[in-house]
Structure formats: structure tokens, C-alpha cells
Design a protein that fits this description.
Layout (H helix, E strand, L loop, with lengths): L1 E6 L4 E9 L4 E10 L1 H4 L7 H22 L13 H5 L5 H10 L10 E7 L3 H18 L3 E5 H7 L12 E6 L4 E8 L2 E7 L5 H11 L7 H14 L23 H12 L5 H29 L4 E5 L6 H10 L5 E3 L11 H12 L19
Parallel strand pairs: 1-4, 4-5, 6-9, 9-10
Antiparallel strand pairs: 1-2, 2-3, 6-7, 7-8
Helix pairs in contact: 2-4, 2-5, 6-12, 7-8, 7-9, 7-10, 8-10, 10-11
The structure holds 5'-O-[(R)-(carboxyoxy)(hydroxy)phosphoryl]adenosine (KG4) and zinc ion.
Length: 374
């Protein structure tokens, strides 16, 4: 069984083909085209620009993904039916490239299509959804809508198939920070989440205060680790650990960013200061994330802990969680290149749905605020 998945919830135009046998999935192609250079001047992702870029990039990404998976064959060019092109009316770039590019591609041996329906930036989501719907009509292949956060959760399926349920997931990305209890694939309950900024957003905002371009999370992490190699403890700045001792599983990161801003106002930003602040900030964030995860495990006994989402690429977080968890708990993180947004994770989530026979056909609508437990 082969699944072709499309992910456009933010600034990555991503398409993957995953093959799933009885026992395990394998990746046939994994294309991630980042638009980050275009968005950097806005200090974040600009939704209508993201939509237009997805419109231009989707067809070339599809050709590349099919080629890499050995599923690309040309055929005598056909005219794309008008009723399909009409569905792409709201994205002229996409409509144009679909019209010119798809007629000469032979229907590939794909069994299912999957697409992210939310959460994310709605104009960007719509680009992927309309493209997926048009492909589904053209090739007559069923289309499965997938929640982006469920995709992050499923990204660990390439690390291991043996997830024991109930599983607790710490999902940390640019838009979300949540503790999710999974009783099985498809059955989720959010037991804790951020009250304001997401943790990735906090990394990016602090990076900006230190003078780094968006998204600065990886840069903060590099500086922090350099400092950690030099100094055993972080003693220069002292930031709060927000909600560390609160009697619930909520997070809050916006005050931390404000504390960083105040601390930096009193000092000149040198490389040394950048390192010291990055270190203290990463220490503070990781301490809170680890502590809340342990607290959640105290109230909701789980057999597996999954760490996923863009911030799960953070080496220090991966390591600190590992060292703090009970040794009999199965701890699974995605391969590092699957931490940040990609379409392989969307295909893997679709794979769990197909295996559970949970793929009823329904109208797909972009939902920027879609919750994993809705
Ligand atoms: O999941 P993701 O790729 O996109 C969203 O769904 O939001 O997450 C992106 C976030 C960004 O905020 C980025 O700065 C952060 O993940 N990130 C990191 C690291 N790599 C990516 N944050 C801290 N350390 C990293 N190594
Ligand atoms: Zn994400």
C-alpha cells in the first residue's frame, strides 16, 4: 500500500510517499521545500505569501516526490477537466501549474492521498487541501484528512512500531505546547497546554531579541550548548521557571520572553551575552517541560512517552527528558529530520487510520484551530 501525503500548514511545501507493508512503513520519497528566506523579512510567516508560494511549489514538489519514489511516468498529455480546474480558482498560481503540469503525468500507483486539514495558517492549509482534492478527483484516489499534531505524534512510527498504549505525548512546536494522552491511535485527550505562547514561538521570539532571524530556535540551541560545554551552571542571568510549581498541567511562556527582554535592556548584546542568555533560556524552558511531563505521568500512568513537534529537534530537551524518565517507560522521539514539519508524518498518521479502518470520506475544510481531540 502506498500513501502520498501533502503538508502545507505553514511555510514548508512538503510531499512524501510512504509505502506500508503489513508490519512496517518505509519512506519512498520525502520532499520539504522551505520558504523561509521569503518570510524572514517579516520576522515570521506571512499567510497570503505562504499560500502563493505553495501554489507555485506544489506541482514541482509532486513531480520530484513521484520521481524519487520511481512512480513518475509521462503519458500523452490530456486536458485537465474544467470542473477540476475550477476547484483551484482561488489559487491562480496553483491552477496554472496544475493545468500545465498534471496532464502529462501518468496516474501513479498510489492507493491513498493524505493532506493536513489543520491546525495551521488557513490560507496555507487551503493550498494543500485544494491541491489534494484536485488530485483525488483527477486520479480517483481516496483522500484522508489529517490533523497536523497527530502527524507529529505519528512521526515516531519510523523510530519504532511498538508503541504501547496508553501513551503520553509531549507535543512542542511553533504553534503548540500540549500534553496529550493517547489511549490508541486516533483517540486523544489534551491534559495540559500552554495558556499563551507556544514553546517554539518563545524560542523564536527570544532569538529575535538576541538579533537572530526567524526561526531562531535551532540557533538558541546551538549557543546554549556551546555555553554548557564551557560552564557547568548558568549563573549570569536568572530567568523564572513559569508555572513550575503550579498545581496543574498548564504552561505559560510569554512571561519568560518578557523577562528576557527586560534583562537584555540593561546590557549590550555581545556574543558572550547571547550565549549566556540562550543557555539560561533553554535551561528554564527544558526544566518546565520535563517537570510538567513527570507530573502528568504521576496522574496519568502511561506505558510510553512520545516527544514530538519541531522543538523535539532540540538535543538538550531530548536528553534531559530521557535522563529524568522512569527507566521502565518506553521513550520514543522521531528521527531528528522528522521533528520539524514534513509530509512523511502526515502519511504515517494516515497509515494508522487506514490500519484501523477509520477513513470515512467527508468534505475537507481548512481549520486553523483544529484540536487533536476534536
Ligand atoms: O513543528 P514545527 O516545524 O512547525 C510548527 O508546527 O509550528 O515547529 C517549528 C518550531 C519553530 O518555532 C522552531 O524554532 C522550533 O520548532 N525548533 C527548535 C529547534 N528546531 C526547531 N526549537 C528549539 N531547538 C531546536 N533545535
Ligand atoms: Zn508542526
Amino acid at each position: 500500500m502506498k500513501i502520498l501525503a501533502i503538508e502545507t500548514s505553514c511555510d514548508e511545501t512538503a510531499i512524501s510517499v510512504v509505502e506500508a507493508t503489513e508490519n512496517s512503513p518505509s519512506v519512498l520519497s520525502h520532499i520539504v521545500n522551505s520558504q523561509i528566506n521569503l518570510h524572514q523579512k517579516y520576522g515570521g510567516v506571512f499567510p497570503s505569501l505562504a499560500k502563493r508560494e505553495h501554489g507555485k511549489n506544489l506541482v514541482p514538489a509532486l513531480v520530484e516526490a513521484l520521481n524519487k519514489a520511481n512512480l513518475y511516468f509521462e503519458t500523452n498529455s490530456i486536458e485537465i477537466p474544467t470542473e477540476i480546474l475550477e476547484t483551484l480558482e482561488k489559487n491562480p498560481e496553483l491552477q496554472e501549474s496544475f493545468k500545465n503540469g498534471l496532464g502529462a503525468i501518468k496516474k501513479p500507483e498510489i492507493d491513498y492521498l493524505a493532506v493536513t486539514e489543520g491546525p495551521g495558517l488557513e490560507p496555507a492549509l487551503w493550498a494543500g487541501i485544494s491541491f489534494a482534492k484536485a488530485l483525488s478527483m483527477l486520479w480517483d484516489i481516496p483522500l484522508i484528512p489529517i490533523n497536523h499534531m497527530e502527524g507529529h505524534l505519528a512521526s515516531v512510527l519510523l523510530s519504532t512500531e511498538n508503541i504501547e498504549f496508553p501513551a503520553l505525548a509531549l507535543l512542542v512546536s511553533g504553534g503548540h505546547t500540549e500534553l496529550v494522552l493517547a489511549s490508541s491511535w486516533g483517540k486523544y485527550q489534551i491534559i495540559g497546554q500552554t495558556l499563551d505562547d507556544a514553546v517554539g514561538e518563545a524560542f523564536d521570539k527570544v532569538a529575535r531579541l538576541l538579533g537572530f532571524p526567524y526561526p531562531g530556535g535551532p540557533q538558541i540551541s546551538r549557543l546554549a550548548s556551546k555555553h554548557r560545554k564551557k560552564e557547568k551552571v548558568s549563573a549570569y542571568f536568572k530567568l523564572p521557571r513559569p508555572m513550575l510549581n503550579s498545581d496543574n498541567l498548564s504552561f505559560s511562556f510569554s512571561g519568560l520572553k518578557t523577562a528576557v527582554r527586560y534583562a537584555l535592556e540593561k546590557t549590550e548584546i555581545t556574543l558572550e551575552i547571547q550565549q549566556k542568555m540562550a543557555r539560561e533560556f533553554e535551561d528554564a524552558v527544558v526544566e518546565v517541560l520535563v517537570s510538567k511531563t513527570l507530573k502528568a505521568l504521576g496522574s496519568y500512568p502511561a506505558k510510553t512517552l512520545i516527544l514530538a513537534g519541531g522543538v523535539s529537534a532540540n538535543t538538550y530537551l531530548r536528553k534531559q527528558l530521557k535522563e529524568s524518565l522512569p527507566k521502565d517507560l518506553l521513550y520514543i522521539v522521531p528521527e531528528q529530520h522528522l521533528s520539524t514539519d514534513n509530509a512523511t508524518m502526515i502519511a504515517l498518521a494516515a497509515y494508522t487510520r487506514i490500519r484501523n479502518n477509520d477513513i470515512s470520506q467527508r468534505e475537507i475544510v481548512a481549520n486553523g484551530n483544529l484540536q487533536i481531540d476534536s
